[in-house]
Write a structure and sequence with these properties.
The chain is built from eleven helices and 20 strands. The protein is of the alpha/beta class and 595 residues long. It has a domain of 68 residues. The longest helix has 18 residues.
Length: 595
Amino acid sequence: MIQTLRIGAFVATISLSLSAHAQYSYSGTETDPGLTASGNQIVDQNGNNVRLTGVNWSGFETPIGIVSGLYLAPSATFSPDFRDYLDKLQILGFNCVRLPWSYANMICTEPAAQDEGCNSNGTCTSTDCYNYSVCPECADKSYIQGVDDQKNLLTSSQFYNLQLNAPLFRLVSGSYKAKTPLECMDEVIKYAGSIGLKVILDNHCIVSGAFASQPLWYTSSVTQQQWIDEWVVIASRYADDTYDPHHAVIACDLFNEPKMDPRTAGGSAWTTATGAQAWNHAAEACGKAILAANPRLLIMVEGTQWANATAVFPTGSGTNGTQANTYTNWGANLTGAAAAPIVLGSSALGVSYQNKLVYSIHDYPGTAQTLSGQNVLPWFSSSVSNYPYNLAGQAWRPFWGYLVENNTAPMFVGEFGSWLRNPTVADAEGNVCGYSALSPTQVTSDKLWVNALLHYMQGDWNLSQPINEGADSQAISVTVGGDAAKKGISFCWFGFTPNSADTGGVLDCDYSSTDVEKMKYLKYYLSPTMLPSYETALGSDMNGDGFVRGEDMVIFLALWRLDTGGSRFSRGDFNHDGFRDGADLVMLLGRWRSE
């Protein structure tokens, strides 16, 4: 499609017959073993420590079937283009993104977001469906603002009418239709990899949007084997450089938050015995199948919620170092791994994948439990005299921290988050999010919690450093040893966009500005981006149509010499030197080939 763009006083229309398909090929080493586990750390193929510090970007696990935020953003100066969101994520200093997805979306053959977020099978379920103040995801006919909705093309100095979200669409019978959720995820992964971000794939639920009511990794209509088979399909897909040219996908989080009481038919168990509820045995089978298809990947295995009677677990009064109950946060109970650790060896193949194992948990404060309708866990009780110093011995070490402290395996805190402020009160930028109000006492409690957890993940196992409600860098000096920026427990904050009623997001409620309160805590603990050591023509396909040709040249010239905002990964800066100049033009022309 030819784009006519106004640059200054003249209109440049370029249509060149010489064009080239973007070459999606991995240009690194022929053998890429991916990341591995060494003791309680994740390391690269040279043995260097790699700490994953990222955010969760929801959407592929919901009925909309695409990452959140791709409708017309409230801010007129910010583009609701998925690539610009990823640029923002990278500029903020995160080095990875966890992408939740549902089984239903991955097998879906229909266009993603073909109707609204407030719909059921294309039927509007609310009279306020198109009211932005009630449901911002549904403020327009198409959830994905882009090539089929020309009125949303931007005219700001940074974007120059660049078609939004073009890679997420295809031309069908003369009109643009969104690609399937899986194909849209391909594009998110390709661009993330092109700017040095890594991707963790998280099977969040089987039925889209049903994660809270789904304690098991299968349902009455989707069997455990079907769940494993779909993971193999996805792992095989991203072993192919066509879909993951930068090897961005590094890990599979097998199932989100196995939960509920295992003494009932619906609860998840971690047990030495096998059975329909035995999550650890299902995880082993799934992990082995994934690694047979794509041995480059890490296998992340979350805990359950409840301890089980088939093993011996810590008990106690709930004060000063012991937990009062056998349950904790959803997916955060790894006490069973002491008696029944995950084993990823394959006797049939004679291969051990044990160094691909990473355990994972989620941790949330009392406010998130209150807002989501769960019981507040006992270590947040007002009767605890030494809060938050009780958390290490009561909430973390007995359930999962022992695996890290004993140097058994790496840990990935796949979700943790909080508003860290009252969302009904305007912040410094005037954003009022309009969710449930939080009291000053609740906000202070959450700030103490997040500071303590960050200290703990940095290696302050006994919380010996002073912890206050203000963000600080104290724990940086109490790391697990050596390189503070790369050692410690890996994590992903929840979430990126602000549409979680329990936590909000790193982006504030205008979907553009940064929530400074959250970043004030996180910034001390972010690890370096794992920069790409190679480039492909993917980065030069600026309008995402699969070709490097005149349209891309027009976009590049429109961005010529514009300030990159300090980012070395802004669109058009192909050599990542912080400038869009002649060197980038040479790289663009070098990728120009005949069909």
